[in-house]
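Suppose a classmate hands you a notebook page containing two proteins, each written out with its sequence and a corresponding row of structure tokens. How would you begin to make sense of it? This section walks through that situation. The first entry is reproduced here exactly as it would appear on such a page.
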Amino acid sequence: MAANGTADILSSAYLAVEYVDAVLPENPFHPSLKHAWGYMLDNYSKFQIATWGSLFVHEFIYLLFCLPGFLFQFLPFMQKYKIQQDKPETWEKQWRCFKMLVFNHFCIQFPLICGTYYFTEYFSIPYDWDSMPRWTSLLARCFGCAVIEDTWHYFLHRILHHKRIYKYIHKVHHEFTAPFGMQAEYAHPAETLILGAGFFIGIMVFCNHMFFLWAWVAFRLLETIDVHSGYDIPMNPLHLIPFYAGARFHDFHHMNFIGNYSSTFTWWDKLLNTDSQYNKYMQRRGDKKEQ
């Protein structure tokens, strides 16, 4: 009886998902994406797609999302949105950051990317177009990955701030008290592996297609570059995400060093009261504006 009841519940849930999926609009980029994906499958092997394709996606998206923040420093009208206006970007800092990024991307992250093909083969992750998940499924799965990554990041990040180990690893990321977008992945190689593990845990749980891997990469890069941008841009669409932390929340972490340990959401900091200093800071800031 219990087994039949469980089967009925799962069947009803499946039908509900199918119904919601059927009434939602199609992805407007569906025809173009289908053509591009078909061309890629016809001309490249799975190994090439998983390895070189993933490297290209990571580097292209990282540079693309960093570009607006890089240009903001040359646009006077954008300076009113800069959070720490007394600490402008400098060429020296940006060049030092870029050199570290090149090392991390190609000496730490690329070897990990080389394992993508073997991961997809071992877990029978499909590449074909017929198995392509709908955009709603991609969004839901990316959100699930973000929840997992954020939880991992909060607790491991907080541990990396412990006084006994901070100077050996996480201190590198805090070289810049006023962050800028390109600095999102500026970190000690050990930190890249430790905090980066949360990114892969989500993949282990939610991955159902090769394209999902790239969608999750894009979402995670967009989020981490945004929170490190140093600019609190009005009407930022990412703020439509429930409990999204944003640039001002994470910028305070770099400025204050203590508190606001989450990467994407605010709930762990709220639950464990590690946003108390931030809340007091924002209250004082609000009081000054009223005066």
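The notebook's second entry, a different protein, reads as follows.
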Amino acid sequence: MDIDVDHYSILGLPTGEDGAKLTEKEISKAYKVKALELHPDKNRGDPKAHDKFQRLKSSYEILKDEKARKLFDDLLKVKLEQQRRHSERDAKKRKMVSDLEEGERAAFAPDPAAREREKEERILKELKEQVARVRAMHANKGKTAASVLKTEMGGVGKESANTGEELVDKKRILKVSWLKVGEGYTAERLRELFSKFGDVEDVVMKKKRGSALVVMASRDAAVAATGTVSGDLSNPLQVLPYLPATAAEVPTVQRPAEAERINLVGAGYKAFEDSVLEKLRKAAEQQKKRNLPASL
């Protein structure tokens, strides 16, 4: 007899405690039904039909015998008890392994407080880098104009191949002056006037009162402002390029006065500047006498 065979299952009956409660009549009825199903005459195409039918008969003979059935029921109880103990043991083993793994994870897991501190330190470091970048950007923005101002005032502002310092494009710089120093212009007012013709990169008020340097963002903006900005009628502005244009840069078609101003260099440029200032002074005096706008 195969001890691993469940005779109740062979007959299609419930096993274990439920099988032990079955009556002989219920067992006989189940055998007849199963015998009709597994009879070799009805399963001629199945080469194992005879073996299946013989196993059915053997299981029925064991179950219909009172002593054999009792022993088989006891055997089922022992096997079920063993399965239960194995299941409990496996469950305990799985829980133990799970607890060990959880303990290892907890032991090697980073401390939440330490993780938060690291995150805070990282954010602070990035913030300091960004603040330094912004400050350096603004510092460099005014560096070129400040270098030009040093040159204008006789300081050290020359380009240096050793330091790598480069001055701003001087063709974007405008020299601005006015007569009435007491009613002069502020950096904010100059920025407002010149920004109508393009972005103003910087405005540097010179130590000499009544003059300033205006750094435009582009050469085109500097040219447009040079020919247009006049300031207040009561205190007109003189706007000149910091560097006079070369002959090659002079447009083909231009007003005579413009050509004269742009082509002036050296002593001629200084004489032209003095003549413009003289004209401005005379215009201001005539305006006071006539109480009419000065005509430049």
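A careful reader of the second entry would note: Residues 155-166, 253-266 have pLDDT under 50 and may be disordered.
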